[in-house]
Amino acid sequence: MQKILILNGAVPHNNSIETLNSSFAERARDNLVGQGHEVRLTNIAQGYDIDAEVAAHVWADAVILQFPVHWMGLPWTFKKYFDEVYTANTDNLLFTSDGRTNADPKRNYGMGGVLTDTRYMLSVTFNAPSEAFDNPDEPFFAGKSVDDMLLPVHKTLQFLGMKPTATFSAHDVVKNAEIESDFARFDTRIAEFAAEGSDAAAA
Fold it and tell me: CA-to-CA distance for 183 and 162, rounded, in angstroms?
């Protein structure tokens, strides 16, 4: 059994996208609970206790972050969560420093995270079609991947010591949604995510 924290970053001003992201978060919870895992779900738009969220990160073996991509990054409500919860760092439970030392202040920035046994997964929704990524002929992203675009999110979590797993992305959800297909792919990815954790625990 794994302890898994799900952070639902759906925002309230766009009802269809909020509903979709909440559906992904709840689907992950239900699938994982059905497999026997212990799951906590934080719906960020409904409010949260900062110290409790720090404690939840310490408790978790793995964290799933579900959110709609807004202007190439996190919705502001989720960025606020990052700023409040991770900056609080109650009792240095998330990181002990920025990784540098007085003896060598130019090296090892970002290596002070405490959550080194914690995995994470990003699950995101886009208005952009999948074809906009990983294609040098598409001018906007010019061959960049979803993970390239989300690098600041990855690096925030890695600053805390967490280890990345494969990102899930649902595309074109505003104009050409393929919800049932996306749900099927998501169910497969969640099963893989759980299995990866079980394999890591057994190693």
Answer: 26
